């Protein structure tokens, strides 16, 4: 007797509504075990690998690579071979639709017919060298380049390990395509018409947003429903600048209670984050969140200062957070910032790194600018701190001198 179950993207872990299928590690007919890797998905926050909860055989993949999968909808169907634990059996029985057990005996047959129809619609194979089973694998950065250049990943021959597609492969394919296009459009010389004096027409080139950019658009649009109050001021960094210089000169000899390795040089950001945590201790309202679950809105105060830091990555803006800042030292905060930044650039941030933020810090000083009006992007926060660029300006002292 066959029993079909379905695997889903866990909404409680990722905290999002849809993900992009980056690559499948299995195919229909493949045998899997518990904790075997099924696929890799890219959300607006990070790349996550989905593993199997059961032993069995893959029957149906509900999405192709690069498709957008809805959270809570089945990713694939598995024909279970071994016994199911009582916990899994209870989970399967609680929601028949989500558990994937057929509501009628014809459901497995329909799934098989659907898979067969999809196979019949596949385009015929083209002449050329046999492609590796990894030929459709690529990093999120490469997939972003594929979308930017409007290149089908199946048309590119990968030169990386196991036939994986690299950025250079995509760029070479795009360059060769442009050369062929320009050559085919060239016609033999003929009596050319008189040059046109009309104004050139506007050319518009659509580019599909990446998953992170798409989520940024949705988040910024949703933030318009949150009331904002903007307050701007200037701070004197003279004393902090001297302290930072002294600490950087003695940093190689300093030791911290934490096991984290501090960066070779301290920036101003760890000091600002620690100062913000001290301010939150004095004004805990700024660390709260608004609850609208009941008929009357209420404030939920939180004891831990999980301060998010907005980071610019090749895929877009993401906001991991530093947990329990109130109990961390300056060196520990600096080490955690360095860790999160390295993971963000490699698209390896985990769900734990991104969840649970209580207040956010964003900084435009690295690109210039003095004032900014940041938005509160999360409904679980009531405050965001925006930092501009530090600069030397003349000012009057208390005695009237400059």
Describe the secondary-structure layout.
Blueprint lengths: L3 E5 L2 H4 L3 E7 L6 E2 L4 E6 L4 E5 L4 E6 L6 E3 L3 E7 L5 H9 L1 H4 L7 H14 L19 H9 L18 H18 L26 H12 L15 H13 L18 H14 L6 E3 L6 E3 L6 E3 L1 E3 L2 E3 L2 E2 L7 H16 L5 H4 L4 E5 L20 E4 L15
Parallel strand pairs: 11-15, 15-16
Antiparallel strand pairs: 1-8, 2-4, 2-7, 3-6, 4-5, 6-8, 9-10, 11-14, 12-13
Notes on the structure:
The chain is an alpha+beta fold and 402 residues long. The strands form 5 sheets. It has a 4-stranded antiparallel β-sheet with strand order 1-8-6-3, covered by helices on one side. Strands 5-4-2-7 form a 4-stranded antiparallel β-sheet, with no helix packed on it. The longest helix has 18 residues. The protein is globular and about 80 Å long. The N and C termini lie far apart (88 Å). About 6% of the residues have low confidence.
What is the number of helical segments per DSSP (H or I, 4+ residues)?
11
Principal-axis shape: globular
The largest sheet, given as strand count, sense and whether it forms a barrel, is: 4 strands, antiparallel
Mean pLDDT: 78
Q: For the largest beta sheet, what order do the strands appear in spatially? A: 1-8-6-3
Spans of at least 5 consecutive residues whose pLDDT stays below 50 are 94-108, 121-129
Helix content range: 25-40%
Overall SS class: alpha+beta
Spell the H/E element sequence.
EHEEEEEEEHHHHHHHHEEEEEEHHEE
Strand count:
16
Q: Report the C-alpha radius of gyration, rounded.
A: 27 Å
**Alpha carbon gap, first and last residue:** 88 Å
Q: Provide the β-strand percentage band.
A: 15-25%
